[in-house]
């Protein structure tokens, strides 16, 4: 697995907003939006790399998972995030946005990136039922983080297109969290 991809946090499903964003024409301030802020561009770059991460996680789930629900969830991740990333890249190209992931801002972010990389490597080494249980736990944790990130970004962005995108994706993200929680309950008896 590419460490550059793993460096990004496991914010599962957060990249789905790219489906909506990419479909919109670029927004100019004159059309009621504001220019993309540095934070908005950073979020888009994270979405791109989270898409790549989720495609890899999905492929691993299909390959290493034992339960058909895990394999199905993995296939869904591959499908949704491949499409989302193609559309996000198209949007970024039209806007001239560099999707290179930002470097960690401090030691805390660097440690989180390293922990994510270590967790991914550990998960990739597992198979069958053990993989399934760990994957389900990870998906719940990551989706909870993703919901929090989207809600925070919604409060902080001034770009109308980004706000619209996040308002549309939040219910989808919450639905995916529910699916991950159900999977976790089924596999971990919690």
Distance between the termini: 31 Å
CATH architecture group name: Up-down Bundle
Tally of helical segments: 7
Rough shape?
Answer: globular
Strand content: under 5%
Going by CATH, the homologous superfamily would be Ferritin, core subunit, four-helix bundle
The major β-sheet equals: none
Q: What is the ordering of alpha helices and beta strands?
A: HHHHHHH
Radius of gyration: 16 Å
- Unreliable runs: 1-33
Number of domains: 1
Helix content bin: over 70%
CATH class annotation:
Mainly Alpha
CATH fold field value: Ferritin
Q: Which structural class matches the secondary elements?
A: mainly alpha
**Average pLDDT rating:** 77
Secondary structure blueprint with pairings:
Blueprint: H1 3-6, H2 17-23, H3 38-64, H4 68-95, H5 107-124, H6 128-156, H7 160-188
Overview of this protein structure:
- The longest helix is centred in the C-terminal third of the chain and has 29 residues, at 128-156.
- 75% of the residues lie in helices and 0% in strands.
- It contains 7 helices and no strands.
- Helix 2 packs parallel to helix 4, helix 2 (17-23) runs antiparallel to helix 7 and helix 3 (38-64) packs antiparallel against helix 4.
- By secondary structure, it is mostly helical.
- The chain has a single domain (3-25, 35-188), classed as Ferritin, core subunit, four-helix bundle (Ferritin).
- The model is unreliable at 1-33 (pLDDT under 50).
- The two termini are 31 Å apart.
- The radius of gyration is 16 Å and the shape is globular.
């Amino acid at each position: 697995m590419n460490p550059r991809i793993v460096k990004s946090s496991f914010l599962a499903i957060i990249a789905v907003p790219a489906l909506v964003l990419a479909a919109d024409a670029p927004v100019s301030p004159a059309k009621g939006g504001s220019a993309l802020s540095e934070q908005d561009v950073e979020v888009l770059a994270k979405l791109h790399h989270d898409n790549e991460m989720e495609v890899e996680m999905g492929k691993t789930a299909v390959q290493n998972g034992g339960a058909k629900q895990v394999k199905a969830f993995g296939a869904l991740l591959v499908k949704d995030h491949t499409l989302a990333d193609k559309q996000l890249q198209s949007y970024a190209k039209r806007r001239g946005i560099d999707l290179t992931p930002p470097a960690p801002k401090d030691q805390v972010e660097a440690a989180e990136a390293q922990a994510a990389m270590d967790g991914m490597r550990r998960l990739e080494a597992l198979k069958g039922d053990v993989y399934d249980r760990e994957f389900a736990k990870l998906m719940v944790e990551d989706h909870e983080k993703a919901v929090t990130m989207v809600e925070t970004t919604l409060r902080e962005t001034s770009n109308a297109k980004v706000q619209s995108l996040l308002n549309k994706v939040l219910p989808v993200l919450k639905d995916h969290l529910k699916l991950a929680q159900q999977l976790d309950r089924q596999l971990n008896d919690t």
